Predict the 3D structure of the following.
Amino acid sequence: MTTSTRPLHLAAELAPGPGRAARPGPDTAARTVALARLAEAAALDFLTHDDSFAGPGLDALAVLARVAPETRSIGLVPTVTTTHTEPFHVQAAVATLDWVSRGRAGWRIAVSPTGAEARLLGRRPAPPTAELWQEAGEVAEVSRKLWDSWEDDAEIRDVATGRFVDRRKLHHVDFQGATFSVKGPSTVPRPPQGNPVTVVDATRPAARDTAAHHADVALIRAASAEEAAALRAALHRAARAHGRDPGQLRVLLSLAVDLDAYEGGPGALAELIAGWHGGGAVDGFHLVPAVQERDLERFAAGTAARLRDRGLFRTAYEGATLRDHLGLARPVSQYATAGASA
């Protein structure tokens, strides 16, 4: 596929930015659903919702579980910290979101590196950031194993015999990491996507190896197209070194936007997106609006519409799942494959 014909991927952040009101109010659910529907009408690939132990606000997984039945097509990607949480419970929650959304879930892996966050939970001191990202990679690995621990046809649901599952198609993962162990299998059937989409913010060097090894989507920041292209190439090289097909890793530029400023507005942003994507610097853009309603509306009505008019972005969703939107194949269960070849 030539550079000019590569699909363009667009995503946006739902949660308010740093320093802005993040405390929930009586209209929080309605507001969030309205924003999600606005982004869905523009056929964006997915929405992210940030989360952290360090600040106020609702749990991102719960917020997007509320949004899921109110939307039909757009991908939903909550931030989920892998620090001070139980990997088994994390993967089950993400798998449940995939079921609730009928195959539109992802998760943006995050770590909690501060002492203040560690004191909130009281389980352990905060290890060095590099160790936390190594642990995050292990959580991503065991999550894939647990999602695969139910084969696709493990559910029987035979009322007459009272059999719900075929136990032969449930598998123990027996995972031993540096800081945790998991026996399995999962308590949730294999998700509709097989594996929900894994997103890693690779803007900090400590997270880049985890992104290259485990992410379906890596988010980067760069001041120029040349810098973005270099980061994308480095992530592809690292993915190949981990035995992965770099073509299965989408690299999106995470860009803070204020479409009320003097920089040219929605039209100038469309030109930047078209130029960087067309030149092969990135696979798409993840927009972080300065003011949620205003900037997301202007991005949808202005920027995305201009890209669509130029034939650079989809006019409608062509698939049902987030993996479909991203052009990523549904993975075969590693246990089903092993059983078939035995």
